[in-house]
Structure formats: structure tokens, C-alpha cells
Write a structure and sequence with these properties.
Blueprint (H helix, E strand, L loop, with lengths): L6 H8 L3 H7 E6 L5 E5 L16 E4 L2 H9 L1
Antiparallel strand pairs: 1-2, 2-3
Helix pairs in contact: 1-2
């Protein structure tokens, strides 16, 4: 997954609105396996970050890369 995941995609993954993702999303880093590490602001309300790690992050896995690895 070369392109950064959209706010809409992230919102669907963690169950919050696209506007909330836009408001609290921070840096995004492409990892070596093709997934993305997405950081969120520490000011993000607790009820919105229930599906994030303790580090206010989310890893978005590249489904296609994951499928290729598991078939090898």
C-alpha cells in the first residue's frame, strides 16, 4: 500500500467519523512490510481512541501484501 490510507478508510477501521480522524490524525509512516503506522494527537478524547494502542497509534495493514506473504 504505497498511498497513505484516507481519513475515510481509517474512520471505518476504528469506528469514528472522518471529521474526527481529520481533526486528530498526526504523522503517518510507511513501514517496511507495506503497512502504515498512523499517529493520533494526545488531545484525542478517550471515547474516540478505544481502538488505538496505548501509544495513540494505529497500524493499517496492506491486505494485498499480507495475502502474498501467506501464500508463499
Amino acid at each position: 500500500m504505497e498511498n497513505r490510507p484516507s481519513d475515510l478508510k481509517i474512520a471505518g477501521l476504528i469506528g469514528i467519523t472522518e471529521a474526527d480522524v481529520t481533526r486528530y490524525r498526526g504523522d503517518a509512516f510507511l513501514l517496511g512490510d507495506g503497512s502504515w503506522l498512523i499517529h493520533f494527537a494526545f488531545s484525542m478524547p478517550k471515547y474516540l481512541r478505544q481502538n488505538l494502542t496505548g501509544g495513540f497509534t494505529l497500524i493499517v495493514v496492506d491486505k494485498e501484501a499480507s495475502d502474498r506473504r501467506s501464500s508463499e
